[in-house]
Specification:
By secondary structure, the chain is of the alpha+beta class. The protein is 30% helix and 33% strand. A hairpin with a 5-residue loop joins strand 2 and strand 3. It has a single domain, classed as 3-Layer(aba) Sandwich (Aminopeptidase), CATH 3.40.630. The chain binds coenzyme A. The site of coenzyme A has 19 residues, from strand 6, helix 3 and helix 4.
Length: 180
């Protein structure tokens, strides 16, 4: 069963489950209140309620690119607690359906190792785009993903990715750091 919940509606137990999975896979600290508040969580569970696979969509504040305002979501935190059984693909397909219904564009970053997983699950992959996504913090410091990753995406009617590929800008200035 796929459960979709805004961060503000997660129970303490659900927050714990997400934090535990992230700590196990990536040794990262628990999510901050802000991270939780700006995310929508997708949890695939079996009938016993066990969490099989999880991912989240992060709300990215609107930003301007080529004189147009875009509202994106960032796809991140993709983990299957039970791997190799098709749960990840089932979850991503649920996310794609949600994005279609809401007409949202999403992008995420992944290394070569898992690019095939996203492609197999229905999200196209582009390489060579990661370093174009930048953010300038309040002190004017330029932030960019330090690793050259693949971009997986699903675009809505705003045609965000197609426009980037067509214009091929030096950089796309986001409204937050591309670190999700
Ligand atoms: C990547 C991950 C989410 C995949 O989830 P999963 O539930 O094991 O994947 P699925 O069983 O649904 O696999 C779907 C397809 O993707 C492919 N695939 C799955 N895992 C893959 C991997 N690690 N590398 C390459 N391809 C993979 C397979 O081809 C599979 O197709 P098949 O069933 O025809 O063989 C899981 O391995 C995981 O949790 N990894 C650790 C965390 C991580 O790296 N997350 C990605 C962050 S960007």
């Amino acid at each position: 069963m796929l459960v979709v919940k805004k961060g503000k509606n997660l129970t303490p137990q659900e927050i714990r489950e997400v934090n535990e999975a992230k700590a196990r896979e990536w040794q990262i600290p628990p999510m901050s209140r802000h991270q939780i508040a700006v995310s929508t969580f997708f949890h695939l569970r079996n009938q016993a309620g066990e969490l099989l696979s999880l991912v989240q969509l992060l709300n990215i504040p609107p930003f301007e690119f080529n004189k147009e305002i875009f509202r994106l979501t960032g796809l991140g935190g993709m983990i299957s607690n039970i791997k190799g059984k098709g749960f990840g693909r089932e979850l991503i397909q649920g996310v794609i359906k949600y994005l279609d219904e809401k007409d949202l564009t999403t992008i995420g970053f992944c290394d070569d190792e898992v690019a095939e997983f996203y492609r197999e699950s229905g999200l196209p992959i582009i390489s060579g785009l990661t370093k174009k996504f930048v953010y300038y913090d309040k002190d004017g410091q330029r932030k960019v993903n330090d690793k050259e990753l693949n971009v997986m995406y699903k675009e809505g009617s705003d045609q965000f990715i197609s426009k980037i590929l067509k214009i091929d800008p030096k950089e796309v200035i986001l409204s937050r750091t591309p670190d999700w």
